[in-house]
Amino acid sequence: STRPTESAAVPTAASTATASGPVELREGSKVKVALVPGGAHPYFQPWKEAARQSAADFHLGGVVFNETAEWDQAKQNNLLDSLAAQGYNAFGVFGVSPTDINTTFGDLKSKGFAVASLASCPAGDTNEADFCLSTDVEVAAYKAAKAAIDAMGGKGVLVHLTGNNVDANTQRRIKGVDKAVEETSGAVKLLPVVADVDKDLQTAQKAVADLLAARGKEIGGIVSTAYNPAVAAAAGVKKAGLPIKVVAIDDDPEILRAIREGSAYATIAQNPRGQAYVGSWALALLQSQQCTMRQPGVVIDSGSFLVTKENVDGYDTERRKTSEQIKQRFAAELLSCR
Amino acid sequence: MLIAICVAGYLSLVVASGGAFASGNAVQTFFQFLPVPVLIGLAQMIALSVGQLNLAVGALGGFLACAMGVLMADLGVPAPAAIVIGLALGAAVGALTGALVVFTRINGFIVTLATMTILIGAQYRLVGTRTVSDYSPGLKEFGQASVLNIPLVFLLALGVAALVAMFFRAAAPGRRMLASGSNPLAATLSGVSNDRSVILAHTLSGLVVAITAVVTVAVSPGVNRSIGGDWLLPSFAAPIIGGAVLTGGTAVVLGTVLAAFIVRLVDSARAEFSLQPSWVNFVVGAVVLGTVVLTRARETRRSGGSS
Amino acid sequence: MSTRKPLFGLLGLIVVLVVVFGTLSPAFFDERLVLFPLLRDIAIYTVVGLAQMVVLSIGHMNLAVGRMAAFSAMFMGLSYDRLHLPLYAGLCIGLLAGAAIGAFTGWIIARTGVNSFVVTLAMDFALLGLIPVVYTALTANAAFTVKPDGMRELRQYSLGDVCLGNVCGSPAVPQMMLLAVAPMLALGYLYHGTRPGRELLLTGSNPLAAELSGIPTRRRVVTAHLLSGLLAGLAGFMLAVATGSFRATIGEEFLLPSFLGAILGGTAMAGGVVSVIGTFLGTSLTLVIRRGLELVGIGLEYLNVYLGVILLLALSADRFLQRRGVKS
Amino acid sequence: MIVADQLVKVFPGVRALDGASLRLEAGSVHALLGENGAGKSTLIKILTGVQRPDQGRLLIGGEAVTLRSPTEAAQAGIGAVHQERNLIPAFSVAENIALQRLPIRRGLVDRAHMRAEARRILGLLDVDLDPDVRVDRLSVAQRQLVEIAKALYGESRVLLLDEPTASVSPAEAELLFTVVRKLADSGAGVLFVSHKLEEVFAICDTVTVLRDGRTVLDAEPIADHARDDLIDLMVGRSREALSFPPRPPATQPAVLELDRISTAAGHREVSLSVRPGEIVGLYGLVGSGRSELAKALLGLEPIESGSVRVRGKNVVIKDVRQALAKHRIGYVTENRKEEGLFLDQPVSRNIAVTVWGRIAGALGHVSPAREGELVSMWVDRLGIKLASSRQLAGQLSGGNQQKVSLAKWLAAETEILIIDEPTVGIDVRTKGAFHELIWGLAADGMAILLITSDLAEMITLADRVLVMRDFRIRGELDNDHHYDRTSQAVIRLIHSKEI
Ligand SMILES: Nc1ncnc2c1ncn2[C@@H]1O[C@H](COP(=O)(O)OP(=O)(O)OP(=O)(O)O)[C@@H](O)[C@H]1O
Ligand SMILES: Nc1ncnc2c1ncn2[C@@H]1O[C@H](COP(=O)(O)OP(=O)(O)OP(=O)(O)O)[C@@H](O)[C@H]1O
Ligand SMILES: [Mg+2]
Ligand SMILES: [Mg+2]
């Protein structure tokens, strides 16, 4: 199992004892929240359910989930404007381009909307959104690599498969994996990262097969921090019959299945449902002027969870608990309410 | 010339890998991923033969792969029936595309771009963001099966290539398609219906895409909306490097197959030498350009003008 | 065969669609949230379409439009980040880089006689290799995030901020539109009024006859690709300004729209026929459809399906009416 | 057997046919005459189902029919050689001949049968061509013969020939006539379009004349009409007599000299010179290498040895632009469709392309007024028939396209002009006007190298005739413009064994 690291903020730290008590949203009917991922991706699917649920639970004027941004920052900007024109006034956004999204947030804020950066924070040190509620992708990648290294017995050859090389988030993931490998001080050797293999399943599959054909015998573990390579790696390793430990990211049904049947060793599940659910709630508080952020732009970790065969059926309980704790933490430390 | 490059490239990979690349497993992996580029190249080549473009190869392939996956996994349709439906659907979409081009006289580029958009939408409708993988083990076995380390799917692709070559060489409709592509006016005056050629070309192109989709369903761990997303450019690159002309009138089956082979060589080299992806792109760029310049240099100066 | 007619058809289509979408969703006429960004997009993608149009005019293609934009934007980013140059000085440097890479591509094509499709595809791959190397070496997040003075204004200001006395322009029209109008005017003049422009068209129409008529066809090939690189660079600049940073992924989405805008507008794939206004209208048509669907609230399940279907229906109707018009 | 009744065909801006009628009888060879743009090709296209008439009827064997496609026409027994070459370059001769109805055996094309059939038809024409050779390897003349063979394929009862002899040598034309006669004698009806009136009188029985899309002479026996009558009917008014005022002998030093040129194309030791004010004819059988010599001179084919002198200076010409801009040399190609014209461009641009360099101002600005003036001047001078100068070149009739191709180089105002087969497909009147024009250009001091396979034309115009065979100059004679004497001398030179 993995030990929490110093950089992974433990979300449960000080959330139970609150001075002001629980915060209740008083009037949410004027708030219309738009949850806008970067494009269609399995990761965001829990947002849909969370949108429905938060609309019902908090009596919001509406919560919409719109994934038509198609991984293009310009399209996403347009989409946000269109949603604003349709009357949406609070936005939970996964920015396509982490280096550009602050500009988008700035524009939205200047038009008087509440904005949350969900599932990813802007690149750099500033966050122009009201808050950022996300997994720290670097930490998630670090945890995944750590898990793989542990499964390999602390030594051997590790490969990192990932997506778009020139995406800031990819760079963070690479850093996370590199860090975990560095900590083994040479016991684990990392092959050059295989990037740009998330475009489609076949590219991923081909890359994995070529990799296994060329280096299969020496490789001890594979960390995939992107979806398609994870699916491909699990299938490829299973087919080749090699004793390679695959650690994936996220908890798409396909990956959970691989863990159950043993073709993948573990995955790092994140907390998309919590991001959307708690995010919508906080956005409603902000947009209805009931609360303000004590520290605008604050970054909150939504948690990441190691899922192996042992806890594959139970990890969601833990995750839901975490979400609840995040909500309490908002009430206790992050918001200042009337 | 292309053959020489293929052989030289393959041999140098074998040598560079200390012989490992000639091992059964490596050979199998190499050929396992060749059928898709070969087939999409052929599908595009068929469209190019009459001077049309088919921008929808990837979208149609992805849509059909997902449709077959869903039919088998969700609706419990047996694999052979799903394949037949897939093939029929591919040909039908192709025929419809061709008919649209002919009857509306809208540029084939625009029509296939529109069908591409529609099919991408349809593919998403079918599977959303999930990966469908729970289908016919028999089909998946077929996808992995091989004789003497040569995967069956590759032999299938070669078979299709041979049929396409035969079609263009010796079948009357194939000859008529080439006539239409080469000189539509002359073809008309010889009683060849260009309209029919265009519809036939799109239909066949759709059919070959459908075969590609079957292969994809067979060899992939599953199908999802990303299938087909990366087919467009390779589908053009293979026939054009192979010598096809965008304005029509050419059918270069062997060239298309060999060009796909060369691109696959670069892929394998990437894994063999753990190259950075950026270097691979460099290499692909250089190899593509080098191949074509060499081929070109060999051609007599006298034939034809520029581009 | 006059070229006027299809353009009126396109314009009519756009008007009809705007009316339909406006009726379905009155928010369509929201100046600040809909029209302004829509026009900004149209400006950017018109330039993208023009970048393709200039090579189509000689019967070539540029599959590296997007990557040339990224290449050019990289130089702009570099000059802001490292040299701290003002906005327009950096723009000029980037445009020079774009023109240079375009001219180089054209030179290879002219020298080797290899199909432009293949050369630009190879160039695309080469740049795809080069650009990330530079970005990862020089930046932390694969993007130059410095924002030179004037960048924010260029993104946000409209003609509403330009006043002559009491008369101000429309706040719906972004100032960035001027960056598209300038090359439109220049290209329109080039193709209609000057010798090099016409020579480009004739080179596209029949390269052999052009050579035999004393047109320096090789030089024209270089010219066309140079212009393409230059315009791609401009489009890259506009996109970077509109979204916020000069990054490696600029232009990734340019390829298909570049062809779509130009060809919808009546530019021939085979060369010899171009339409600058057509490129503008073709680009507008596709963006209006997309924006309209977005506003009507179509989800991803149907968005692309509708997009394709409307495009086909609209064009078919246009053709149908045109043919009726010819008959009567 | 086939009757066209009051056909009307309207194109944007032109009434190509305006009440044209034609009666073609079985067993006769019927001439269809008319000026360039009179509507001959349009009529033939309607008879072969390529185009549909806007008004009027077609009757075959007394019954009204509608021909919707060339296939339907072929089924009705109509075969045609169209004016523009229409072959598939990458296909073999045999396949081109059989394309109309490919023989099929077991689902595949029966190549053996196709080859045999092609060989049979080529044999009929006495043409020695390998049926397996690709058409793009053939010379212009050989392609024309293939087209004729193609029209004969499938036992047509009606054969429509649109200028079938425009670019074949007299000997080959002779063979064609024999076949045509044979076909007519066996009961076929042949329609023959040509601007070469000698041919028409030699083989035709009846004649129809079109003027401006209207039939002005309807199927009368040709024997009833004199040559000049027919020309008057075509032209519609009395012709002005041609005037060839005497030209002073060229005395100035040569402006263009080739000295023992050898080329990659195969020329050996070719020497010639042209003086200002002189027309030098270059005669030879088709394929003797004349056009290629011209192209080598313009830098399009490598010159391997020997020297080219322009105005006394040794020069190396890289391309046509240099030839035009620096040396003031122009070249009118024989292959207008592929090398001469921009078919999808307006006529104005086709003509003005060579003058932009001269009239362009700062930044390459071309004044539309200046350009329009020049264009309309040349359209008038050559009598190019068009709806407007913005009409696309590809929409002009064959002869008018040829005029545009020539106009381009006349407009260029060069000092040295190489003209390759200038009057192919041009009607009699315009041909006369052309000749006058070329004569006049020489009289004004231009140096002209004239390549033509039309011996009469050569003898009318040239001052000296060089005869080329197998890429070598075989001899030179002074021309006294006396047809019989000079033609015999030329033919003797061509067939002389060795020099
Ligand atoms: N597709 C077309 N579009 C517009 N005008 C056309 C078209 N085809 C022919 N024309 C016009 O119709 C008229 C008749 O042309 P046609 O080709 O029948 O002449 P022709 O008698 O064959 O002449 P020639 O002796 O030069 O071949 C010409 O004025 C020509 O410009
Ligand atoms: N049977 C053939 N096979 C291949 N090429 C041929 C053949 N006949 C002729 N050619 C080509 O034609 C060239 C000679 O044609 P060219 O046009 O120079 O001759 P020409 O004397 O001008 O005759 P023309 O009257 O046809 O113009 C040859 O060099 C050759 O390239
Ligand atoms: Mg004619
Ligand atoms: Mg010649």
Any chance you could write out the topology, listing elements then pairs?
The complex is a heterotetramer of chains A (338), B (307), C (328) and D (499).
Chain A: E1 32-36, H1 45-58, E2 62-65, H2 73-85, E3 90-93, H3 101-110, E4 114-118, E5 131-134, H4 137-151, E6 156-161, H5 168-182, E7 188-190, H6 201-215, E8 219-224, H7 227-240, E9 245-249, H8 253-261, E10 266-269, H9 272-287, E11 291-293, E12 298-301, E13 305-308, H10 315-334, E14 335-337
Parallel strand pairs in A: 1-2, 1-3, 3-4, 4-5, 5-12, 6-7, 6-8, 8-9, 9-10
Antiparallel strand pairs in A: 10-13, 11-14
Chain B: H1 2-16, H2 24-32, H3 35-49, H4 57-73, H5 79-104, H6 108-127, H7 137-144, E1 146-147, E2 150-151, H8 152-170, H9 172-182, H10 184-189, H11 194-219, H12 232-241, H13 253-272, H14 277-298
Antiparallel strand pairs in B: 1-2
Helix pairs in contact in B: 1-13, 3-8, 3-11, 3-12, 3-13, 4-5, 4-6, 4-11, 5-6, 5-11, 7-11, 8-9, 9-11, 12-13, 13-14
Chain D: E1 2-11, E2 14-24, E3 29-33, H1 40-47, E4 55-60, E5 63-65, H2 70-75, E6 78-81, H3 93-98, E7 104-105, E8 108-109, H4 111-124, H5 140-152, E9 158-162, H6 170-185, E10 189-193, H7 197-203, E11 206-211, E12 214-221, H8 227-235, E13 256-263, E14 270-274, E15 279-284, H9 290-297, E16 303-310, E17 313-315, H10 320-325, E18 329-332, H11 336-340, H12 347-352, H13 356-359, H14 368-382, H15 398-411, E19 416-420, H16 428-443, E20 447-451, H17 455-461, E21 464-469, E22 472-478, H18 483-495
Parallel strand pairs in D: 3-10, 3-11, 6-9, 9-10, 15-20, 15-21, 18-19, 19-20
Antiparallel strand pairs in D: 1-2, 1-4, 4-5, 7-8, 11-12, 13-14, 13-16, 16-17, 21-22
Bound molecules: adenosine-5'-triphosphate (2 copies) and magnesium ion (2 copies).
Describe the structure.
The complex is a heterotetramer of chains A (338), B (307), C (328) and D (499). Chain A has helices at 45-58, 73-85, 101-110, 137-151, 168-182, 201-215, 227-240, 253-261, 272-287, 315-334, and strands spanning 32-36, 62-65, 90-93, 114-118, 131-134, 156-161, 188-190, 219-224, 245-249, 266-269, 291-293, 298-301, 305-308, 335-337. Chain A has 338 residues and is α/β, with parallel strands linked by helices. In chain A, strands 2-1-3-4-5-12 form a six-stranded parallel beta sheet, with helices on both faces. In chain A, strands 7-6-8-9-10-13 form a six-stranded mixed beta sheet, with helices on both faces. A two-stranded antiparallel sheet of chain A has the order 11-14. The N and C termini of chain A lie far apart (43 Å). Chain B is mostly helical and 307 residues long. Chain B has one domain: ABC transporter involved in vitamin B12 uptake, BtuC. Chain B is 73% helix and 1% strand. Chain B has 14 helices and two strands; from the N terminus they run H-H-H-H-H-H-H-E-E-H-H-H-H-H-H-H. Chain B has a two-stranded antiparallel sheet. In chain B, strand 1 (146-147) and strand 2 (150-151) form a beta hairpin. In chain B, helix 3 packs antiparallel against helix 13 (253-272) and helix 5 (79-104) packs antiparallel against helix 6. In chain D, the strands form five sheets. Chain D has a six-stranded mixed beta sheet with strand order 6-9-10-3-11-12, with helices on both faces. In chain D, a hairpin with a 2-residue loop joins strand 21 (464-469) and strand 22 (472-478). The radius of gyration of chain D is 23 Å and the shape is globular. The interface between B and D is medium-sized, with 21 and 27 residues. The structure holds adenosine-5'-triphosphate (ATP) (2 copies) and magnesium ion (MG) (2 copies). Chain B: The chain crosses the membrane at residues 32-48, 55-73, 79-102, 109-127, 147-168, 198-220, 240-266, 278-297.
